[in-house]
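Fold this sequence, please.
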Amino acid sequence: MKIVLFWHRRDLRQHDNAGLAAALQSGYPVVPLFIYDREILDLLPSRRDARVTFIYDEVERLARQTEQAGGTFLAFYGKPLEVFAQLVQQYEVAAVYTNEDYEPYATVRDAAVAGLLHQAGAELRAYKDQVIFAKNEILSKSGTPPKVFGAYSKAWLAALRDEHLAPYPSRELFTAANLTQLPKAAPRPTLEQMNFERLEQEVPAAELPAEELVRNYHNTRDKPGLVNSSTRRSVHLRFGTLSVRELMRQARALNPKLLNELIWRDFFMMLLWHFPYTATESYDPRLRQVPYRNNEDEFKAWCEGRTGYPLVDAGMRELNQTGYMPNRARIAAAGFLVKHLLIDWRWGDRYFADKLLDYDMAQNVGNWQWMAGTGAVAAPWFRVYSPQSQQEQYDPTFAYVWQWVPEFGTCEYPKPMVEHKFARERAIATFRAAYQAKE
């Protein structure tokens, strides 16, 4: 009996799933599949990672739902090529359906898997699911990727139609008639068998945020001291436990600012797909040779939230303790690292990659390069935010700071590790020299 495999990746849900809906309409019985990819997991700095625990719990939830519907759910811990080589030998696989992933590793991996499947007489079919517009769907009039967000957003909104946000009928199609049970299917690995320890962090439910929160989003998003300052749905968008189309529909109806922020998400994914080298290298060639100071002691103090600037320190401490960091704290912390300490943006990018529950390469790289002034879309390299002004504007009562830096205002709290005026002048002079050297 021929089967179709549906390969879950960044789409850990059965509802409104583009690739899953296509698989369930393929005419073949479907077997959902997840691979704990060792090419990714073996690079993690710790075997206690809340993201792995979150993924594991969501995969087990999908497995239970699949079994309740009358099907078999497969899960493996290994390298995708090796897993698929085993599967095409064990089963008669007509095709593997999945949803597109735009990160550099994913595009290389998927090409390799497609080649392996082709040799076995099968094919890889990938569908757009985690964004509304991808790859070359939004281009400038000259046919090139837009590098100005305003132009991209205008074109994005002009191209949007109701059908782009319409849900896919994957949940309705997820029935015993479209699934199959595999005899002697391999048992799914446990966290312990994968040598991971369980580590849980608080994550909101994978459902749409309350309407009142969304309506007030533009007023609260830059106030980190508020309990509900943002939707906090970025983790669910990252792992696909919430459909981006669901949140887009809500945002379009209730708050254009939230919709705009979600368009940024599409924008950064488009840029990373077009310019994959920006994952590890500055987009602007004139700023690839900035003589960063890269002082390891200062970097350690930044990581631990001991800079002497309370908004920066509060953000870093919340990140270390919860895996979450409000937007305004991310801006303050990133700007301070690159401009005040003159530490390479890639150091900060890697640290965030290790700590953020909602880590997404496209968003992380895009925002770090924006702050550093080195990206395809970037703040001017000569813009240096004042941490004190940021504090006064966005947390004037120190509500956020008191929550995470209880020793602030006492002799135990460190003095600022660098004076703003001096750091600003040093940063501008350093970046100007690098910028002019390449002209």
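The first strand starts at residue 2 and ends at 8. The two ends are 63 Å apart (CA to CA).
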